Amino acid sequence: MAKAGLAAGTEVSFYFVTANCVPCRQLLNLTTTANEAEWPESDPVIARQCHSFNSHLLFPKICGGCRLHAIVRPLLEEEVSVAHNMHRHHHQHSHEAGPTRRSFLSSLLSAAVLVPWATGQQEARSALERAEQFRRMSEEYEKEGLAAPFKGITASGDVMPGLFEIRPSGVSTEPVRNAAEKFIAALTPVQLARTMFPVDDVEWRKWMNQHFYARQGISFAEMTEAQRQAAFGLMRASLSAKGFELTRNIMRLNETLAELAEDHDFLGEWLYYIQIFGRPSATEPWGWKLEGHHAIINYFVLGDQVVMTPLFIGSEPVKAPSGKYKGIEILQEEQKVGLEVLTLLPEAQRKSAILNFSKTGNNNLTEAFKDNVVIDYAGLRTNELAAPVRQRFRDLIELYVSNMDDGHTRVKMDDVDRHLENTWFTWIGGMQPDSVFYYRVQSPVILIEFDHQQPANLRKFAADPSKPTQQHIHCVVRTPNGNDYGKDLLRQHYLNHPHTT
Fold it and tell me: Does pLDDT of 62 surpass 60?
């Protein structure tokens, strides 16, 4: 059957290309996007993920020597047969002996067209080479980071049993489930194939903050406006108003970073991906993940219970100095309250909390592919804190936990309170308002890290690129002892309700 705009019998297949890279922008300038829903599933599909695995759009590739095919072939190195002799001459051309005004103007026109084209080709090759390097780096990190099966972060190497139980939380997850179903319904079959994973898939553990990491799922950049709003609906239903706004501001600051670093291929507001694990259910386990530069949310659901770790939040810069989102600023409360807790401590307790007054590098221990790291308790045990300090310390923990919806924040804080006597506070760095520092909160059921990091994408603006700065912050929240990603709840569920693979 002939497709709209194509002659009957035209061979059609597909490439996935990316709106945010140089070669794909060349395609965008020469073609019109095709709506995936208009094409029958019987069409052959070639899932070529273009260089950074970002913003996949669907384009027809018409075999037969057309202009689009001429561009696609050198860029994507697709080996396909191209019809030859498409232009047959049935007339003679005159050949003048010397240059004429017409030929001179033709030469100028050719130069005007070909010089930018050649420059674009070089940029395209550079982007593709960079993308291939990033792909290899991603695979190497995954190979090393996933070599051992999941165990969980521990203080001694042994998981403390009995910390997490399958029990009613009293907080409905129906709004989250409904929002997830609405998001899934908005996706096309091709998008669903890239977005849906089994609930126990290792893809949960494949996340990384760095901008070069090759991510899976569907990105906001490739979504239609309706799909984007459905994704935001899922986030709003799952997060508190504060948590949603923080996540959106991280995305916006990534646009600021793209402007400052002059890199819109691998940085930007919409280069964040959504994945769905399992099928949204009132009784069966499922979840979702948001993943991108400085924002990773893992959200596991079982009945009315929720686990929202690992959680990674951060930015460089943390305040937009210019551009589209000038003035946006994040993570200032987490910075201020952490310092307040330290300064409120009596001198003896403060000395116990501080491991080192000097901070010279990055100190986070639980970022990407650190699911099984062993971190012994260190610093100050908070069981003897005076009441005002204890309350401020609890406020600090709640700053992070309260990125969840309000009901599940209360459930998690009850869990935190049960272990508050066995919670530790650790500090590295100075204690002045302009100091750089690292702090950690650690108990059997929660682990929080805050870290002023060395400049990365904005190194060229730093007076000393080797020194940490308050304008680059990484924060991580974990559930130790085997329940990151809801793994311990899932394990118990499978014991009670055996599943076949």
Answer: no
